């Protein structure tokens, strides 16, 4: 059976499962559409939350970023998991006790202002749309390779699938679909990692293989990898090279951004009791850890396998003891079919710049070392592996390692499960904000339940269309795009939720001013450095560490935006009237665990 046929079978079977669950669990009321009728158990909700959370950025892109950056990109792991601790302790149980459907609804009621609710909707839409672009990027990457279609065609196929099960099922259908998607994605991520760990280190557990011995050379695996990449002129894999300030701010942005993500928060509105919200967060951490503890091993082993493919001598101890891989081998050798397959997608490419029939892979920015000496001796004009998209590494790794076809097929299904599960959650958050907060809460308060449900489905369909169009030209790799969304959530939504729960002094004026200041400052900083502001046809400032303000990257600025939000909110509130007595009582009732067994239903 051909690899393409296997891909179709595994992907088709997973699609049929998701759509079948959505049809069976079709939402028939707004309570089912927005919050699954608050009937999801903590374990099931934890698994669904993990799938909702572990997006294309986690499954496809994170290990790729770790593969090419090493230690410095462990910030993704620390920030994202640490954020769940904040969410479980500081937000989830209190927001569940409040007992409403959406984040903007809490903001509007707590700050007794329709304007605050609308600002909350705007912030939610900006965050969620930015986030969903990353998911659609992952969908396009996966489909383009495994169904052998263009990236744009893959995006439209993914959009159609999300439309089928998200628009039909709402939160009820999405919840149980995400449970199935979690099972698919964790199996798809773990199985190839086990195979590759056994190949390289003899360890069954990838977590142990990462710190084990490279069997072919007898060296510690990470030491061998460090030697390999430094020989090629790249920086040491296990060393820290980036700005410590930026690393801390980036990790913090991911943490507080996690705690402020609307599509994650609404998952805690689906459980029966307040105590179940905290239990759900705990279970989600367990299920997330099953993948996140494997990701560093996947990233490092993917980098090793890619380099060993380009330099066969790496396996025997001397990178340059054998010639680099030849063009003839790339075009004909069965074990290099993966290179031909990924070249078709445009995400991997090479060029024989010196005409010697070999493709030399090295860091052409290096100024000394074996790579420089080799380049001088062979008359190289530059690195000849010209394109390696970070997002292909997890998906290509089983092919590079020549694993069985069924393993490659299940990885394809897993990558799609990760991207589609998060996309569905984000689209539900968007549709809830539009239909429940904007239409019912502001524009048409007397709309019928059926009308609101139809509005939710229409707004979700439009959101899918917008997300797909934007996903055709994303501002970075999947994980980079998602990181920008975390910064936006950190600067706008997290502070207002924290102040809404823990401060009786912050009023509507402070909340509105804080959200606007935090969001606008972060958007401005991102736009300036990401190349979306132009003067005379050129970008205002290059997106490089030397040009960043105090060395703070655009993805890290969310932490600064959050500080601005808090400062403006408290400053404005200090010169404004105190919130009304009934609002202060509301804050007290949310925060103090009296009658915490059953939250007031909406």
From TrEMBL:
Pfam families: SSF
Annotated membrane topology: Multi-pass membrane protein
Classification via InterPro entries: Na/Glc_symporter_sf, Na/solute_symporter, Na/solute_symporter_CS, Na/solute_symporter_VC_2705, Sodium:Solute_Symporter
Keyword Oxidoreductase attributed: no
Membrane spanning stretches: 6-25, 46-71, 77-95, 116-133, 153-170, 182-200, 247-269, 281-302, 406-434, 455-472, 478-498, 510-528, 548-572
Alphabetical UniProt keywords: Cell membrane, Ion transport, Membrane, Sodium, Sodium transport, Symport, Transmembrane, Transmembrane helix, Transport
Keyword Transmembrane helix: yes
Gene3D superfamilies in UniProt: Sodium/glucose cotransporter
Compartment(s) of residence: Membrane
Classification via PANTHER family: NA(+):SOLUTE SYMPORTER (SSF FAMILY), SODIUM/PROLINE SYMPORTER-RELATED
Sequence similarity: Belongs to the sodium:solute symporter (SSF) (TC 2.A.21) family.
Protein name: Sodium:solute symporter family protein
């Amino acid at each position: 059976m051909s690899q393409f046929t296997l891909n179709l079978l595994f992907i088709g079977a997973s699609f049929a499962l998701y759509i079948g669950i959505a049809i069976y669990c079709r939402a028939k009321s707004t309570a089912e559409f927005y919050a699954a009728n608050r009937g999801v158990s903590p374990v099931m909700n934890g698994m669904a939350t993990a799938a909702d959370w572990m997006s294309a950025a986690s499954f496809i892109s994170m290990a790729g970023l770790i593969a090419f950056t090493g230690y410095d990109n462990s910030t993704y792991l620390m920030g994202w998991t640490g954020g769940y601790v904040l969410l479980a302790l500081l937000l989830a149980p209190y927001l569940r006790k409040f007992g409403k459907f959406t984040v903007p609804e809490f903001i509007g009621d707590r700050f007794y202002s329709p304007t605050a609710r609308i600002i909350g909707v705007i912030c939610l839409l900006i965050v969620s749309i930015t986030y969903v672009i990353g998911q659609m990027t992952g969908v396009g990457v996966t489909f383009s390779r495994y169904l052998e279609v263009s990236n744009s065609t893959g995006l439209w196929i993914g959009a159609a699938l999300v439309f089928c099960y998200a628009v039909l099922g709402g939160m009820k259908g999405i919840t149980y679909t995400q449970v199935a998607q979690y099972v698919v994605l964790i199996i798809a991520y773990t199985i190839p990692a086990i195979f590759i760990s056994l190949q390289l280190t003899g360890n069954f557990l990838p977590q142990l293989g990462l710190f084990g011995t490279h069997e072919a050379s007898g060296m510690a695996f990470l030491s061998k990898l460090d030697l390999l990449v430094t020989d090629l002129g790249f920086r040491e894999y296990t060393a820290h090279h980036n700005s410590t300030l930026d690393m801390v701010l980036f990790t913090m942005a991911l943490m507080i951004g996690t705690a402020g993500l609307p599509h994650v928060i609404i998952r805690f509105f689906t459980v029966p009791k307040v105590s179940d919200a905290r239990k759900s967060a705990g279970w989600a951490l367990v299920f997330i850890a099953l993948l996140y503890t494997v990701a560093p091993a996947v990233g490092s082993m993917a980098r090793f396998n890619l380099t060993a493919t380009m330099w066969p001598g790496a396996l025997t101890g001397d990178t340059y003891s054998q010639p680099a891989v030849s063009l003839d081998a790339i075009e004909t050798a069965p074990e290099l079919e993966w290179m031909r397959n990924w070249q078709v997608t445009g995400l991997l490419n090479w060029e024989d710049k010196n005409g010697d029939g070999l493709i030399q892979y090295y860091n052409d920015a290096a100024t000394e070392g074996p790579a420089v000496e080799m380049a001088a001796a062979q008359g190289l004009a530059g690195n000849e592996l010209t394109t390696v998209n970070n997002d292909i590494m997890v998906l290509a790794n089983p092919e590079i390692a020549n694993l069985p076809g069924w393993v490659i097929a299940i990885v394809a299904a897993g990558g799609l499960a990760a991207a589609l599960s998060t996309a569905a959650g984000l689209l539900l958050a968007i549709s809830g904000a539009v239909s429940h907060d904007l239409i019912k809460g502001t524009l048409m308060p007397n709309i019928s339940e059926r009308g609101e449900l139809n509005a939710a489905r229409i707004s979700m369909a439009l959101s899918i269309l917008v997300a797909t169009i934007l996903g055709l030209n994303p501002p970075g790799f999947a994980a980079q795009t998602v990181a920008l969304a975390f910064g936006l959530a950190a600067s706008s939504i997290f502070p207002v939720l924290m102040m809404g729960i823990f401060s009786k002094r912050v009023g509507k004026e402070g909340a509105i001013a804080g959200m606007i200041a935090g969001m606008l400052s972060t958007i401005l900083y991102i736009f300036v450095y990401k190349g979306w502001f132009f003067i005379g046809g050129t970008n205002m400032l290059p997106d490089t560490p030397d040009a960043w303000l105090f060395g703070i990257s655009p993805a890290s600025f969310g932490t600064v935006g959050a500080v601005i939000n808090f400062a403006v909110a408290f400053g404005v509130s200090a010169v404004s009237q105190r919130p009304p007595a009934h609002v202060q009582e509301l804050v007290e009732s949310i925060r103090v665990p009296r009658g915490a067994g059953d939250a007031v239903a909406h």
